[in-house]
Amino acid sequence: MIQPESPNPEHHDGLIHIEHVTKTYQLGEMEVHALRGVTLSIDRGEFVTIMGASGSGKSTFMNILGCLDKPSKGQYLLEEISVGTLSRDALARIRNQKIGFVFQGFNLLSRTSAIENVELPLMYGSTPTRVRHQRAVAALERVGLGSRIHHHPNQLSGGQQQRVAIARALVNDPSLVLADEPTGNLDSRTSIEVMGLFQQLNDDGVTIVLVTHEPDIARFAKRHVVFRDGKVRLDRPNPEPKRADEAMAELPAEEEDEE
């Protein structure tokens, strides 16, 4: 059952602090209140899922979290930086340096190799070519694609393409990884594999905030936040997240193709 929003416990290693944030859009003469006074904190090293029906405010919240939009009112602190006061250029630098994005549709450039796709965030700075290459290779190895660095997206499965996208999100060593429905285009087995990768990264200390509408995906995270009508209606820990290897073992055996 959805519980009323309650104050969060004291946080000792806060990465994100959002306080009394509202977001209002003007559509002609009508005001749309997408967020209605949201207060939420996220610590370094957490793995949080954001859930809610269409129109609940979760997408608006993620846009603000990712510095793609600003609050109408309230405060958003990312590593104690007041994001709402920054210029467009400063926000772009924050997105590039502190936030890694993973999308449902992978968003890979089809005519470039995996390593070139992963290098893209590094090209906005002054990173030398050799260093870009080394960091991109390391990121691809981290997601298990060290042998596929020169493959193009059309030579990779959906799960492998999403791994390339995750490597791209990690290449700048961001403070936060935001994943928006990252398993939405994947089958059940591949979805579990991708969630297993997120769990491994989180075990290594990567902070992950993931939007999903699927309870089966949310069960892999350590904390669940549910939005409804522009407010946080549920915020609770998941003391026993499902491990990907356990979930994989529960799947029916794959049928072999007939000769």
Features of the shown structure:
259 residues; six-stranded mixed sheet; 26% strand; four-stranded antiparallel sheet; Rossmann fold; globular; alpha/beta; disordered N terminus
Topology:
Blueprint: E1 14-27, E2 30-43, E3 47-51, H1 58-65, E4 73-78, E5 81-82, H2 88-98, E6 99-103, H3 114-119, H4 129-142, H5 158-170, E7 176-180, H6 188-203, E8 208-211, H7 215-218, E9 223-228, E10 231-237, H8 244-250
Parallel strand pairs: 3-8, 3-9, 6-7, 7-8
Antiparallel strand pairs: 1-2, 1-4, 4-5, 9-10
Helix pairs in contact: 4-5, 5-6, 6-8
Description:
Residues 1-12 and 255-259 have low confidence and may be disordered. This protein has 259 residues and is α/β, with parallel strands linked by helices. Helix 4 (129-142) packs across helix 5 (158-170). 37% of the residues are buried. The protein has a six-stranded mixed beta sheet with strand order 6-7-8-3-9-10. A four-stranded antiparallel beta sheet has the order 2-1-4-5, covered by helices on one side. It is 31% helix and 26% strand. The chain has a single domain (14-240), classed as 3-Layer(aba) Sandwich (Rossmann fold).
Task: Give a quick rundown of the structure.
With 259 residues, the protein is of the alpha/beta class. The protein has helices spanning 58-65, 88-98, 114-119, 129-142, 158-170, 188-203, 215-218, 244-250, and strands at 14-27, 30-43, 47-51, 73-78, 81-82, 99-103, 176-180, 208-211, 223-228, 231-237.
Mean pLDDT: 91
Q: How far apart lie the N and C ends? A: 50 Å
CATH top level assignment: Alpha Beta
Number of strands: 10
Which percent bin holds the helix content?
A: 25-40%
